[in-house]
Request: fold
Amino acid sequence: MAQLPALVLAGSVPAAAVSALPTALPTRPGDGTPRVLGRPPIEVAALLEREKAKGEAGELIAIPVEDRVLLLGTGDGSPAALRKAGAAVARRAKQQESLALDLRRLDLTDDSLRALAEGLLLGSYGFTLKPSAEPRPLTRITIVVAKPDTMRPALERALAVIRAVASARDLVNTPALEKNPSWLAAQAKSLLKGLPVSVRDDAQLRAEGWGGVTAVGMGSSRPPRVVEATYDGGGTQHVVLVGKGITFDTGGISIKPNDGMLTMKMDMGGAAAVLATLRAVADLKLQVKVTAIACAAENMPSGTAQRPSDVITQYGGTTVEVLNTDAEGRLVLADGIAYADRVLAADVIVDVATLTGAMPVALGRKIAGLFTNDDALCSQLEKAAEASGERVWRMPLTPDYRRALESETADLRNIGDPRLKLSGGSITAALFLQEFAGGRRWAHLDIAGPGWSGSDDEELTKGGTGYGVRLLTRWLEQLAAAPKRSRRAS
Ligand code: BES
Ligand code: MN
Ligand code: ZN
Reply:
């Protein structure tokens, strides 16, 4: 479904591709840029001065008369600047068939090439269900570099990640009429072809005690599923990624107002991210063992739905008083996290979820909340966030808020007790999840903000963003590359 242009490297500007030739413009105008360009020739320095060019990342200046040549600002030349520049030029060229970027004057590293490719391709991503939609004009982008052969492996790695992001966006953008839990499981199987993928159906889930997934899913005529898939590239650690896969969140009996559910097909963005990350990790052949668990259910109000005040039993035996059926994400995740702890004996658990409406209130739409019980894991994820462009901000697991989750009838309640007036809905949700990690190294990414974009914005396109794929893949790449921990005391 995703429509992405092809991206190739070349050593010289291909004659056929010269429908536009954006030329990288270094920070200081005139520096490194040819003196004259276009037909008739234009004095570049004078043009830049006239246009008050600053060379900021993504700045575009067309050569007058022959507007087939664009000058592209590349800012400080950092990966972040090139990601932004790539998205800007791809958007400008989207009505053309092909685009070439002559970057021979830039010193591209593997990381800056990757970021540039992300900007170019993810910024060109399109999704439509209109049968009449024309194919997108921009089908081929050529990057001209001095030594294309030496950069090709890095481009291949970048493309593996970009394709994974695009498939996560496709999963999120598919409307929930089509996207039910069994559809998501079937998509997981085709996305993860070549890897062992198992799918638990509702009968198995009930029999094995996945009480959270069962309770959330039982209001829908389209029963829940749990997908489990593993890639084993060796290494010493078993990483388990758990994704929230609510294919549509109406709130259940605690129903949301219409406006609150308009974007709720996105509520499986965590599941999409962990499945697509597994695809990327396998394509990159990373030396690490990763299991992805997608807990999929549709949260619907009906005669068979769970009721506020029901008490359910999560995987592993913890009982939960369900006081609000709209706090359903933590119920499905708790089963997956408990399974990762008790059965998979994970070395590290990372869950990804569009969990709380309070998260984008706190951090806005571009930054995920990161909650973790491990400072080293926190630094690793922060480092991966910086490199990948998918930002995180650490949030506290405030121990004294834990009492808001105490229940008189069960081990836990699923929403913070409003009588205590503690607020902090994202924190109490994270504290709820922590109960199921069994003290293992664990991180929780609340992606309710960055999982969805309201508009085209740099490398993001309106709709599902695929947030988490770039971040987690980068983290796992760094983990796989890290020298094995020395056993000697330091
Ligand atoms: N899926 C929502 C959270 C959400 C809201 C994600 C907006 C993306 C954008 C989640 O299941 C939910 O409904 N959370 C409730 C929890 C509350 C009932 C304690 C919320 O945040 O309002
Ligand atoms: Mn909800
Ligand atoms: Zn939800």
Remarks:
- Residues 32 and 142 are 21 Å apart (CA to CA).
